[in-house]
């Protein structure tokens, strides 16, 4: 599956490079970002649990979290390369989605690492901006699980997500608004996938219960199967309504 890993790296790198170039050209110098270690809960003393880190690593806990981002990203890329089910369309699509997300995690981890260490405007703006496509890909992934891969809608959603960062140029809290919308939409789509899977699992469970009834006598079997058949839509409906209200 190395072809998927290598093929997904290029589009992620291109998008990240375009955003980085935009910031490098000082197009986003007016964006409000919090710079300085005083904005973090962790004390800037290069110490964690009694262990002394290099002086440039002012906040070890916050810094090492991003090493975790990078590590998890590479771990998932490794799992993708070890898969032997590329010939199965659905699985190949999932591997593609995972690979994109893994590369994004790696780049995001490096970016936030650089922001914490340098406390520079360049990395701070990129840290904010990269967050939006991160959530956006969750939305695209959820839609793909539900409706299948649709390239045009995926590109449109991604472009809108990237452009939404321009709200930060209009208002101090523009980024917060954009991020809030991303989180809400991602949560809604993600919960829709969870609801769908839970309903499907419940239906499978009830189907298995109906099949299990066949081991009993003919009369009991018909009663159980009929019971499952009658109550299944009611139970599924109740569960769906319950999750709708959450």
From TrEMBL:
Domain of life: Eukaryota
InterPro entries tied to this protein: TMEM187
Sorted UniProt keywords: Membrane, Transmembrane, Transmembrane helix
GO cellular component: transport vesicle
Regions that span the bilayer: 63-81, 93-114, 120-141, 153-171, 221-240
One Pfam family this sequence matches: TMEM187
The name this protein goes by in its record: Uncharacterized protein
Source organism: Holothuria leucospilota
């Amino acid at each position: 599956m190395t072809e998927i890993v290598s093929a997904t790296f290029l589009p992620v790198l291109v998008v990240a490079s375009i955003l980085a170039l935009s910031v490098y050209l000082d197009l986003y110098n007016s964006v409000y970002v919090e710079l300085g270690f005083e904005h973090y809960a962790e004390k800037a003393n290069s110490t964690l649990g009694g262990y002394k880190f290099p002086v440039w690593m002012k906040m070890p806990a916050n810094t090492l979290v991003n090493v975790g981002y990078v590590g998890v990203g590479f771990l998932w890329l490794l799992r993708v390369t070890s898969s032997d089910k590329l010939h199965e369309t659905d699985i190949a699509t999932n591997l593609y989605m995972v690979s994109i997300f893994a590369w994004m995690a790696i780049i995001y981890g490096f970016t936030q690492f650089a922001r914490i260490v340098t406390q520079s405007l360049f990395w701070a703006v990129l840290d904010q901006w990269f967050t939006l496509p991160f959530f956006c890909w969750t939305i695209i992934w959820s839609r793909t699980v539900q409706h299948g891969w649709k390239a045009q809608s995926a590109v449109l959603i991604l472009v809108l997500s990237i452009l939404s960062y321009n709200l930060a140029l209009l208002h101090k809290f523009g980024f917060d608004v954009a991020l809030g919308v991303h989180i809400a939409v991602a949560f809604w789509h993600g919960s829709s996938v969870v609801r769908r899977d839970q309903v499907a699992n419940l239906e499978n469970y009830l189907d298995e219960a109906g099949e299990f009834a066949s081991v009993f006598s003919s009369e009991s079997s018909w009663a159980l199967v009929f019971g499952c058949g009658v109550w299944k839509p009611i139970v599924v409906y109740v569960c769906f309504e319950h999750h709708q209200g959450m």
